[in-house]
Amino acid sequence: MEYVHSIQYHRRSQNGRLTLAYVESVQDHGWYIRKGADWKSHYTVACATEYLTRVSADAGTFAITVWRDVTRVCTVGIDWNPPNR
Fold first, then answer.
1. What top-level branch of life does the organism fall under (predicted)?
2. Which residue of 20, 50, 67, 76 sits 20 to 30 Å from the alpha carbon of 59, by its own alpha carbon?
3. Are 51 and 24 in contact (CB under 8 A)?
4. Quick one: DSSP state of residue 57?
5. Cα separation of 24 and 30, whole Å?
């Protein structure tokens, strides 16, 4: 079974507008290791932390949505504060 997901990172501006900043495609089954929304949110934040660090994203608020084909797996918001570079 294929577990290809698209992860979209929308940056929230001062006026509340969301702008697509990054898109990542991953083959990962981590969202299905455990049941429940809490696990999906936890796993999404862990993936987002790794990705935003890797791309050296500037600080800010992001809405992160995970898709599997046309099905939305979850959406979480995070206030991203990158580690010291």
1. Bacteria
2. 67
3. yes
4. P
5. 15
Beta strand 4-12 with 18-27 is antiparallel
Query: Tokens at residue 46, please?
Result: 């862990």
The token pair at 60 is 């800010």
Task: Tell me the whole-structure pTM to 2 decimals.
Answer: 0.91
CB atoms within 10 A of CB 82: 14
The answer to whether 59 touches 83, Cβ cutoff 8 Å, is no
Render each residue's pLDDT in the chain as its tens digit; 85 residues.
678 999 999 999 999 999 999 999 999 888 888 888 999 999 999 999 999 999 999 999 999 999 999 999 999 999 999 877 5
Instruction: Provide the strand spans (E) within the chain.
Output: 4-12, 18-27, 60-68, 71-80
